[in-house]
Amino acid sequence: MFGFGKKRTKLGKWIDSNRFTQEELSRSSKVSRNTISKACSDRDYTPSTGVMKKILNAIRKVDPGVKANDFWDM
């Protein structure tokens, strides 16, 4: 099971439930693996708007209906 026992943010939970990996998201969004990892595990982290846009564009290839509010408090 993906994400078992890890502290996860909403983004991390989405990745786990959609059988997506952080590495795949990193490659498709062109955002560093460390930034993706932080966005998936650190609940206090909010990425910059540029990084947020890259992540959302990559996720929308899989789930076109997602919004930034689904993952981060705006």
Structure description:
There is one protein chain. The chain has 74 residues and is mainly α. The protein has one domain. It is 50% helix and 0% strand. The chain contains four helices and no strands. Helix 2 crosses helix 4. The longest helix is centred in the C-terminal third of the chain and has 12 residues. The chain is globular.
Briefly, what is this?
With 74 residues, the protein is mainly α. It has helices at residues 10-17, 22-29, 33-41, 49-60.
Spell out the helices and strands N to C: HHHH
Radius of gyration: 11 Å
Terminal-residue CA separation: 30 Å
Structural class: mainly alpha
Which sheet architecture does the biggest sheet show?
none
The averaged pLDDT comes out at 91
Which characteristics define this entry?
single chain, 74 residues, mainly alpha
Q: Helices and strands in order, then pairings?
A:
Layout: H1 10-17, H2 22-29, H3 33-41, H4 49-60
